[in-house]
Amino acid sequence: MVNIDLLRSIVQAPGIPGREDAVRSVVAEAMRPLVDELRVDALGNLIGKKTGSGGPSVMVSAHLDEIGFLVKYIDDHGFLRLQPVGGFDPRVLVAQRADIHTRSGDVIPALVQPAAKPIHVLNPGDPKDVKIEDIFLDTGLTPDAVRAAISIGDWVTLQSTTEILGGVVSSKALDDRVNVYIIIEALKRLGPHAADIYFVASTQEEVGLRGAGTAAFGIDPEIGIALDVTLAGDIPGFTPDSQVSKLHDGVAIKFFDSSHISNPMLNDHLREIAEEKGIPHQIEILSRGGTDAGAIQRVRAGVAVTTLSVPTRYLHTVNETASLADIDATIDLLVAFLETAGSRSYAYTI
Fold first, then answer.
1. What pLDDT, on a 0 to 100 scale, did the predictor assign at position 284?
2. The one catalytic residue among 205, 206, 222, 339
């Protein structure tokens, strides 16, 4: 059963890449009583350790950051232009609402609008497509009030509530806060284990997997499990061969994305555990996109890695949507694997 109050507190906390302080505090409070050690590294990664009984070192990573913006320009009329921090489709930004997080700690609400004519006065042939550089914020304040309160470099998040719709949860920042939540729930359910397990709530994933790389260098794990979301293409607009994953079909075990190719022996073990325990699962091949596993895999002399994914509709919008049953399946498979990590080798042989 998904703890909606805990999940809501994690996804609603603001935190774009490099500004993860607020959400890190929420997660640290929940993790602290569940781990043997808890620390923060130079890039802001939150690292909790559960000591095992002589097994291998395992790093489990899910990223804290959500996509957002920085204020890059304030015009003479007090409107704000934006620098995206992470990947946005401008089509989903029009007429949204945002929060501007200022240097003083104030949060100023704003409207997200395109620098374009409204439909009422468009002429035939006028451009209708919105580009990211067309997007601006309107705070409703006078130009002088804007300049007094807001600075270049202040950061921006989109507003959204977290709602349960039938058997799914919909919210901003499920990418990847739903998996930070999964880490906490896995810690609660974890039984005896041989491995030394490092649970990492990583930073700056959306701008190049940066936090996971530095965390992995410091930990030097033998096994790496990234937890992330993946495309659920079981909606209009996708063909069956391009769906990647489906809601309600279970946790997705990733074989390939553009950041890494998963260790096949590790994936075989995960599939065997899922089949033995009756955990709903599916296989994921993602042609574009990446996870923390891509950074972990290439650290030092290399790490055996894979990714467990929560299928999610409407990625990088304020309506990201995941199945409650798939979330539970991901927790179940992660816990079952961690309790057996070290029972076999994932090394290549000659």
1. 98
2. 205
